[in-house]
Amino acid sequence: MLFIHGILESPDQFSSLIRTLGETCTIRYLLLPGHGGTARDFAHCSMEQWRGAVRQAAEELRGKYPSLYLAGHSMGALLALEETAGDPRGIAGLFLMAAPLFMKLTPSGARNGLCAAFCRTRPKNPLAAAARDACSV
Questions:
Q1: 33-62 confidence digits (pLDDT tens)
Q2: Rounded to an integer, what distance in angstroms lies between the CA atom of residue 131 and that of residue 72?
Q3: What span, in angstroms and rounded, lies between the C-alpha atoms of 119 and 110?
Q4: 3-class secondary structure for the chain?
Q5: How crowded is residue 118: how many other Cβ atoms within 10 Å of its Cβ?
């Protein structure tokens, strides 16, 4: 099973799910290019690099296993869908979480995202803390 995180996120977002799966399957997760580093690193990456990372990981797993499951969150869900549409060989299933079929930015979502970006989260705001913890840049 290949886990693909969303934009500005990290593989850590799948920790509880991966623990739940235990040793029921082989698990691989990606840290997409530009994530896990600085804002400058992120700014120098492109969607094509993210697609390439997914393509490369999927191809490696196809070479080792007869069945491949892709799990993606948000942008990772879109990347999983693109990989499957482009090359469905060996893909036995998809697990898509919060696939962005449309975007809706709320005032609290914008505020929490900005607070996380500028390290100004309030300790008593669980949504802001979740936004901060999910951010990998």
A1: 999 888 889 989 999 999 999 999 999 999
A2: 18
A3: 14
A4: CEEECCCCCCHHHHHHHHHHHCCCCCCEECCCCCCCCCHHHHHCCCHHHHHHHHHHHHHHHHHHCCCEEEEEECHHHHHHHHHHHHCCCCEEEEEEECCCCCCCCCHHHHHHHHHHHCCCCCCCCHHHHHHHHHCCC
A5: 8
